[in-house]
Amino acid sequence: MENRIRQILDALNSAVQADDTERNISLMQGLAGLTLCNFYTGRYLNDPHYTRKGHEYCDLLIHTINNNTYKLHNLFSFCNGLAGVCYMFCHLNEKKFLSFDINDGFGDTEEFLFNIGLKSLKVGKSDYLHGGMGILYYFIRRLPEEKMLPWILQMLTAYQEKARIDDNGMRMMNTVLLGREEIEFDLGLAHGLAGQLMILAELKEKGIAETQVSYLIEQGMRFIEGKRQPLEVTGKNSYYPTSYIEMDNMAEQNLDFYTSRLAWCYGDLNQALMYLKMGKVLKNETYLANAREIAALTLTNDLYKTDKLNLFFCHGYSGLINVYDTIYRATGEQVYKDASLSWADTLLQKLDAHPPEQWANDSNAGLLEGRAGIVLSLLTAQVPEAAGWNDIFLLNF
């Protein structure tokens, strides 16, 4: 496993060109994610070569930003924009990989992120990966920095004002993703309510705006719980739908949403993670029991189409390594550690079965849907203490 980690990371490093004038610096698709890979690999494989690379890339990131020679698919987002780059530096500070004054380095950038994040939430762009909630998540990590609290409170109010809240609970339309119905509510971790509730739980845990946050969590949980259906009723493979359309004549489409894949981004594993987070933060044994029930189903349900998985994090083997490792760390139940290691073995087998030219190219170098995510996932499987980077994907519990 270690040889495979080094092989992939060395190939990624060799592709970095110092004179690139359109460098992708993003956290989940670009250089910031690769920087993280090198720091973690250097520390947990005890190899100073990779640590030096990490420091070299930090300098390159700052140089690239200062000289405006970067290219981003989305200037502000957590996934593909400056929020993710700032988060990486914050994370490296927290984990003592380096000492960096974020106020000095990114003070103006953070003000820009607040303004555009607030605007995003006001128009319903709440998506954690691509919208305002990802910026809010970064600001939470920056606490107790003084300027963060008023920004967080304003963004929280904007989120609540745009949410739909009634007797069915709270939900939020995703206005970032294309191909959605007019009144469709995403329940997933990557783009929908499960991930947003996990971010709100971070505020709850820190005691910020407790009354408001508790209300939003309660209403969001009500909506998700109201959508649970027994497998024998739906005839599908999931307790929860991935999405829900509140329009007439959509019963068949809504039923189809109860078919989901086994993945980090969508499906019942999302709800298991959400219930674990809520159970821990709220000290709610019912939520913890729900989490265990849902997670257990994912181990035994042979209806999941795992043949559709790819190698990477978002909806692939790499993500499952980390999801099941997170559930193991939260519950202490060995069956989930076994599942995590089993998916690591599957990933290695798939890598061995296909030459690199079939799965390695310039477009898949990142953490979310690329080889950097493979590197860190295999590293976590080999060295469990290396799992700290999982907070990027809301797996920090």
UniProtKB/TrEMBL annotation:
GO molecular function, one term: metal ion binding
This protein's record includes keyword Oxidoreductase: no
Residue positions binding Zn(2+): C265, C314, H315
Domain of life: Bacteria
Keyword Lipoprotein: no
Pfam families (alphabetical): LANC_like
InterPro entries: LANC-like
Record protein name field: Lanthionine synthetase-like protein
Native source species: Chitinophaga dinghuensis
Coiled-coil residue windows: none
Keywords: Metal-binding, Zinc
An individual GO BP term: peptide modification
Assigned GO CC terms: plasma membrane
